[in-house]
Amino acid sequence: MKTYSPSLPLPFSLGAGYSSAVPVVRSNRKTVSLELKRDGTFLLRAPRGTDDAFLRRFLTEREEWLRSHLKKQELLKEKNADFPMEKLTGAEIRALAEEALRDLPARAARFAPLVGVTYGRITIRNQKTRWGSCSSAGNLNFNCLLMLAPPQARDYVVIHELCHRLEMNHSPRFWAEVARVCPDYKTWIRWFREHSGALMARMEE
Fold first, then answer.
1. Contact 25/5 with Cβ under 8 angstroms?
2. Three-state SS for 142?
């Protein structure tokens, strides 16, 4: 059970456009953590009973971390300036899922022989954290938001998950398999690193 405590003021200014207070969520966790959300706000998570004085010191000691992560997010915002920011409606998400159900299985069927694997069923999901996954049974899951990404990016995700049929890890052998079928995979890793936040932020809360 989580409880939301009054926000704590930051002991320093982060500049114009940023809140000077950090919301606090207390729960049965054992450690304190500071999270930077996609909208540029921070969230402090703490165990129940943690006093505010300790949390203020925690924030003060992490001023450099706060500033460096905000700088990174500002750079990402600049790279995503041309991306639509509106939340997708339920109807739009369903339309993306239907499009993904036509598009992604076809890509899997095309690349599976090149990877040298078979797979089970394919499921399309609307997630906020993952682009794809592969179960130990060989079933593949893909995010419908992939339909907002370039076709080559979709290829990379499909190949990535198919390669997990050979290696259920991210070992050098796994990446060697990915590189064999998708030589420019690092380009698409960078693309997702820069644009995933903007795309997934469009999913409804």
1. yes
2. strand
